[in-house]
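Structure first, sequence second, as always.
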């Protein structure tokens, strides 16, 4: 018996990093999974790998979270291939650093299109199916930048605070329809997002600042997604869960 037997899940940004580990963990617990990402090559590779481990449990589909028509087609396709979707891991995201004075409007808009609007469109697109088929669980990837600020991150933090707020409003609206909505807030996690140029310097700095004195890995994050996707979390909604090695346990003088 898997903890996610009978679950049909969409994992956005599932081709690499945390999303890929979430896909592996979901399939390992018995879920059917669509890996939804703009990164076709990586997504197909992961789908091939999962096919060997659990035939028929996962497939890749090109999907841009900032495009509503892409969402409509994705949900219709999953419903047809696997049955009604009942888990959405709204994990896709992008990160851009810039000082307030230097952040270009186009870059700011891109961050909000992918991170915030992508999250909203995901909730909008699955709500009807979930409501009509006995409910579901939506897990929104915010960040510790959705709980507190960091220099150079004004736009990114704006998107992650938006996700935290949308999560609570949607949880209130969708709860009576059997749909739970929660946000998770990872600290620094070792993925391609945090290593755009390789190298360990950023990792060592990040590790030095938190209680557990290490950065996280996708394997630290995926079990929380499994819990929130499963019926074990049936009374958890509207919650914001930090998973950050203690990064947000401190005020500015700690760490
Ligand atoms: P990552 O860059 O390794 O993976 C992100 C994935 O999202 C990639 O596969 C990418 O192709 C995909 N993606 C980007 N734009 C997309 C779009 N428009 N449509 C569909 N897919 C798209 O990053 P990660 O570290 O695995 O991050 C996953 C989530 O966790 C993100 O929302 C990120 O903001 C958040 N997060 C990351 C960290 C960290 O330290 N890595 C910390 C807190 C929160």
């Amino acid at each position: 018996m898997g903890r996610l037997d009978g679950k049909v899940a969409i994992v956005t940004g599932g081709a690499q990093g945390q999303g890929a580990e979430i896909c592996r963990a979901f399939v390992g617990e018995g879920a059917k999974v669509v890996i939804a990402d703009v990164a076709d090559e990586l997504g197909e590779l992961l789908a091939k790998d999962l096919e060997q481990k659990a035939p028929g449990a996962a497939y890749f589909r090109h999907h841009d979270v900032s495009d509503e028509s892409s969402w409509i087609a994705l949900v219709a396709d999953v419903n047809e291939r696997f049955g009604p979707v009942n888990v959405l891991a709204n994990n896709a995201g992008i990160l851009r650093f810039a000082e307030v004075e230097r952040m270009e409007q186009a870059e700011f808009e891109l961050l909000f299109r992918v991170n915030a609007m992508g999250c909203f469109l995901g909730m909008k697109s699955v709500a009807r199916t979930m409501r009509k088929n006995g409910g579901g669980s939506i897990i929104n990837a915010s960040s510790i930048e959705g709980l507190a600020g960091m220099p150079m991150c004004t736009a990114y933090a704006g998107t992650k605070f938006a996700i935290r707020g949308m999560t609570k409003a949607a949880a209130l609206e969708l709860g009576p329809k059997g749909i739970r909505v929660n946000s998770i807030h990872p600290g620094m996690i070792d993925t391609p997002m945090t290593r755009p140029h390789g190298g360990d310097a950023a990792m060592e700095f990040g590790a030095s600042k938190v209680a557990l004195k290490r950065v996280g890995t996708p394997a630290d994050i995926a079990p929380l997604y499994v819990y929130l996707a499963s019926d074990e979390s049936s009374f958890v909604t509207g919650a914001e869960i930090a998973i950050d090695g203690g990064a947000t346990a401190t005020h500015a003088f700690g760490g």
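Margin note: Residues 109 and 196 are 21 Å apart (CA to CA).
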